[in-house]
C-alpha cells in the first residue's frame, strides 16, 4: 500500500478480511486499507468497502453510505 499503490492497499485489506497468513480476521484493518484503496482510486477497494458497509462488517451498517462508495 506504500507509495499510493491502490492495488497493494486492496490486497492488504483482503488479507485482513479473510485472515490470510495469520488465520486472524481483522475487519477494522480491512476497512482501513479498503478505504485507502478507494481514496487512491482503486475501484475494487470502493466495491469492497461498500459491501462491508452495507453488511455492517467492521463498520456501522449504513446502506446509504454503502451506495456512496459506488459512485
Write structural notes for this entry:
This protein has 71 residues and is mainly alpha-helical. It has 4 helices and no strands. Helix 1 packs antiparallel against helix 2 (27-40). The longest helix has 14 residues, at 27-40. The chain is flat and about 30 Å long. The termini are far apart.
Keywords:
0% strand, 4 helices, single chain, 71 residues, mainly alpha
Number of distinct beta strands: 0
Find the structural class using helix and strand composition: mainly alpha
The major β-sheet equals: none
Pattern of helices and strands: HHHH
- Give the low-confidence spans: none
Portion of residues in beta strands equals under 5%
Shape: flat
Give the end-to-end Cα distance, rounded to a whole number of Å. 23 Å
Q: How much helix, percentage-wise, in residues?
A: 55-70%
Tell me the Rg in angstroms.
Answer: 11 Å
Amino acid at each position: 500500500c506504500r507509495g499510493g499503490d491502490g492495488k497493494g492497499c486492496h490486497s492488504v485489506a483482503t488479507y485482513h478480511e479473510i485472515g490470510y497468513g495469520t488465520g486472524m480476521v481483522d475487519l477494522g484493518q480491512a476497512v482501513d486499507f479498503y478505504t485507502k484503496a478507494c481514496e487512491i482510486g482503486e475501484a475494487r477497494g470502493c466495491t469492497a468497502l461498500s459491501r462491508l458497509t452495507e453488511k455492517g462488517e467492521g463498520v456501522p451498517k449504513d446502506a446509504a453510505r454503502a451506495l456512496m462508495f459506488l459512485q
